[in-house]
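Good morning C.,

I know you're traveling, so I'll keep this short. The sequence:
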Amino acid sequence: MVGYHDSRRLQSAGKVRAGLTPALRHERYGVLMPLRQKRCPFANLPDTKPSHWGEGITEAFTEWTRDGHLRHASFLGVRDDIAPRDVRREG
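The tokens, ready to paste straight into the viewer:
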């Protein structure tokens, strides 16, 4: 899941799978697991409905959908040069 901050609330922008190799997923898992929360952090709770392709969801995406999700997003890397609360919706 990816998201951005809008008016001090974390908004879900969908899922990203492309670009996440098994080795990278393993590495990220180790970093992210200590940060997990019991309550969903997104203000606009992620959509759990299956999409056209069976999944529930920079310049690494085609466009924003009408529902505010990224279309055809790709993982390019982790940005550690910006604070998470400073991440805003682009494009």
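Safe travels,
E.
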